[in-house]
Amino acid sequence: MPISPDDGEHADIYKLRIRVRGNLEWAPPRPQIIFNIHTAPTKKVAVTKQNYRCAGCGIRIEPDYIKRLRYCEYLGKYFCQCCHENAQSVIPGRILRKWDFSKYYVSNFSKDLLTKIWSDPLFNLHDINSTMYRKVKALEQVRLLRIQLVHLKNMFKTCRLAKNILELYDSVPGHLTEDLHLFSLNDLTAIKKGDLGPQLKELVRLGTLHVEKCMVRIYISF
Ligand SMILES: [Zn+2]
Ligand SMILES: [Zn+2]
């Protein structure tokens, strides 16, 4: 593969350095879940704070190469071009604070992490930013539906005829019908797209229908 003069120069500095997994000046990024938005410091300040090392691999950056470092919007740190290949992702903090689903540039490490946790219910909106329910109508709708779903599901657990309806409820991730405020990135994206609300609404409708039928059964059996 031909390399541009730019890449060639870049590659040279890597050959000269031995990569080490952590030392006093640098530690590998941890797979942490960040709820906040970073206020991007100037590159100079940030890179000084990083001891002139890439946040991903710890390689030392010569002053001439600082301009080529890339910012990772998720970790709020600068990375070398090997560790940051301009992948893009939504940023949990931006969704949770501003309902902003734009994609931002992230390091390879963050891209992997965010992909891995995509469906995990890691975000308790009530704890992180409950005002969002008031600001976003679709979220408030989902909040109200979940109250009903949790209640309905608890009723089904005492009903010996609820096997089918419980199976239907299992068609959505368990936390949506068992917890009131936990969300995954996938849930939040589905709400933004307008997909999740109608799906939950249908589960409430079917659940209510089941309960009504059971009431009739109980009434008849008396
Ligand atoms: Zn690196
Ligand atoms: Zn029942």
Describe this structure in words.
The chain is mainly α. It has two domains: about 110 residues, no CATH class; about 100 residues. Helix content is about 50%, strand content about 5%. The protein contains eleven helices and six strands. The chain is elongated and about 85 Å long. The termini are far apart. The structure holds zinc ion (2 copies). One zinc ion binds next to loops.
Distance between the first and last residues' Cα = 81 Å
Low-confidence stretches: 1-20
Shape: elongated
Order of helices and strands: HHEEEHEHEHHHHHEHH
Biggest sheet features: 2 strands, antiparallel
Bound molecules: zinc ion
Query: SS-based structural class?
Result: mainly alpha
Task: Strand order, main sheet: write it out.
Answer: 1-2
Work out the helicity level: 40-55%
Tally of DSSP β-strands: 6
Radius of gyration: 24 Å
Helix count, per DSSP? 11
Q: Percent of residues in beta strands?
A: 5-15%
Q: What number of domains?
A: 2
Domain Rubicon Homology: 70-221
GO biological process, one term: autophagy
GO cellular component, one term: early endosome
InterPro entries: Autophagy_HostDef_Reg, RH_dom, RUBC_PIKBD
What is the gist of this entry?
Helices cover 50% and strands 7% of the residues. It is mainly α and 222 residues long.
